[in-house]
Write a structure and sequence with these properties.
Residues 24-214 form the AAA+ ATPase domain. InterPro entries: AAA+_ATPase, ATPase_Atu1862_pred, HerA-like, HerA_central, P-loop_NTPase. Residues 285-325 are annotated as: Disordered. This protein is of the alpha/beta class. It folds into 2 domains: 4-251, P-loop containing nucleotide triphosphate hydrolases (Rossmann fold); 303-469, no CATH class. Helices cover 42% and strands 14% of the residues. Strand 1 and strand 2 (15-19) form a beta hairpin. Helix 5 runs parallel beside helix 7 (154-170). The relative contact order is 0.09.
Length: 479
């Protein structure tokens, strides 16, 4: 198999080749300030080698999902999975040799770091029979291998630094070839940067970064000024996979990604006197609440339908109608008891379902009373604790939630229940409990997601207050 790719050309138009097999053994470090062309370089490298080797991209900025359109990479949204699921995905990726992009754009910085660390550790700890060669690209590596803790916790820093060190120091024997890209060499942990044998250095202006880049390229300190003068998309390359001496290379074009925005000045719009103020401040309420409410949901299910009717216990003769109702009530009681336990909503759905089935069997139910999909929905309803509402209000809230996805049903019902009682929003602790998180960031993203779906309207005030309105619900918080 052809192992060389062309990443660009020298000034004399001579192609600069990159030996992918050598890269697997020697690793790569890319450095350059914002706007120097790092992402373009990484994309060129990934595109040219996509048919040769498995690729895993850690993407904190959402720059690389477009690789899926042409090259078939699987895009994994890091915010959609729990930590155990992220680790399980990493193991499957190694087993099936899938090229993937781990998109972390939906997470806060510390969550991005912890998610990436767990993912990299799971890649590293894969069984020996799955040690296939793979390029592991980590963009913005100064986040994941910081030289100092900075704003993240020390435990998070140790966790991510261990994962990155394993990738760069011990990953070769496991088939993992680390490619790290950073804006600041001074912010990247030295034991991570030192393990790379190939370097592509782009434009940088700070003296400390220029000096470190010059040292890695084997250049004299007085030659470091050359790095400051590089144009966008131009890099100095050195390493056994590229060249035995520093060579200037202009990175070639790419096939995927968004077109860069036009540079330069654009004339400001002409507006009559006072017209711009009217455009900005006029009818803000309608803009916040949306132009039209969502279509009304279908009628609410009857209370008895909340737990599907299923034959639970083998009996002699035909069961009486009252027996079926009693068994439904027993199932509902099991669900409610499970939902009320401390920490229940913080557990995975599969674990909760197994606990529910165990308790159901202990109560005399044979087989599977309800399937996993029905359990998730009924558990979400039980977690929202709607029994404090009167029956008509409870039915209306359930009607509004009839078409809401299971994973966001519980917090939506809690918000709707609070609004129906005239409250501006549920207590933060209650919203965190029903959603199963202790992260304020996840709560904020949940509210943003619900608002984008048209399920709620969030009204923020500069004084720190917040009201949550539910379209289609008659009773709302007082203005």
């Amino acid at each position: 198999m052809q192992a060389e790719i062309t990443i660009g050309h020298e000034a004399g138009k001579k192609p600069v080749l990159f030996d992918v097999e050598e890269l697997l053994a020697t690793r790569l470090l890319v450095q350059g300030n914002s706007g120097s062309g790092k992402s373009h370089l990484l994309r060129r490298l990934l595109e040219e080698s996509a048919e040769m080797v498995q690729q895993v991209v850690i993407d904190p900025e959402g720059d690389f999902p477009s690789l899926a359109e042409k090259f078939g990479h699987v895009v994994i949204d890091g915010s959609a999975y729990s930590p155990p699921e992220i680790e399980a995905l990493a193991r499957r990726i190694r087993e099936h040799r899938a090229s993937v992009v781990l998109d972390l754009d939906g997470l806060e910085v510390e969550q991005q770091i912890r998610c990436a660390a767990q993912f990299l550790n799971a890649l590293f700890e894969a069984p020996r029979e799955h040690w296939f060669p793979a390029l592991v690209v980590v963009d913005e590596a100064q986040m994941f291998a910081p030289s100092v803790a900075g704003e993240i916790g020390e435990d998070t820093r140790r966790m991510t630094l261990s994962a990155m060190t394993n990738l760069m120091c011990r990953g070769r024997k496991r088939g993992l070839a680390g490619i790290v890209a950073t804006q600041r060499l001074a912010k990247l942990a030295k034991n991570v940067a030192a393990e790379a044998s190939n370097f592509l250095m782009g434009r940088t202006f700070l003296d400390i970064d220029m000096q470190r880049a010059a040292d890695l390229l084997g250049m004299e300190r007085r030659q470091a000024e050359r790095i400051r003068d590089l144009e966008r998309g131009h890099f100095l390359a050195l390493g056994p996979a590229i060249s035995r001496r520093p060579v200037a290379v202009k990175i070639g074009p790419v096939q995927t990604g968004h077109q860069a925005r036009a540079e330069g000045l654009v004339p400001l719009p002409n507006a009559p006197s006072g017209g711009m103020e009217a455009l900005l401040t006029g009818d803000l309420t309608a803009d916040v609440q949306g132009t039209s409410p969502p279509p009304p949901p279908p009628p609410a299910p009857k209370p008895a339908e909340l737990v599907p009717d299923t034959p639970a216990v083998a009996t002699t003769g035909e069961p009486a109608a009252g027996d079926s109702v009693d068994r439904d009530a027993e199932l509902a009681a099991l669900l409610e008891a499970l939902a009320r336990e401390d920490g229940a909503t913080f557990q995975s759905a599969s674990r909760l379902y197994q606990t529910f089935l165990t308790r159901a069997r202990a109560e005399g139910f044979l087989g599977v009373p309800i399937d996993m999909a029905a359990f998730r929905r009924q558990f979400a309803i039980a977690s929202a604790r709607l029994e404090r509402l009167d029956e008509p209000t409870r039915a209306r809230v359930l009607q509004l939630g009839a078409h809401v996805d299971d994973d966001i049903l519980a917090p939506y019902l809690a918000i709707a229940a609070a609004a129906s009682q005239g409250l501006s929003a549920p207590e933060d602790e209650e919203l965190a409990r029903v959603y199963g998180t202790s992260s304020p960031g996840r709560i904020r993203r949940l509210l943003d997601h619900l608002e984008k779906l048209g399920l709620i309207v969030v009204r923020e005030e500069f004084g720190g207050g917040r009201s949550l309105l539910v379209p289609g619900l008659e009773s709302q918080p007082a203005e």
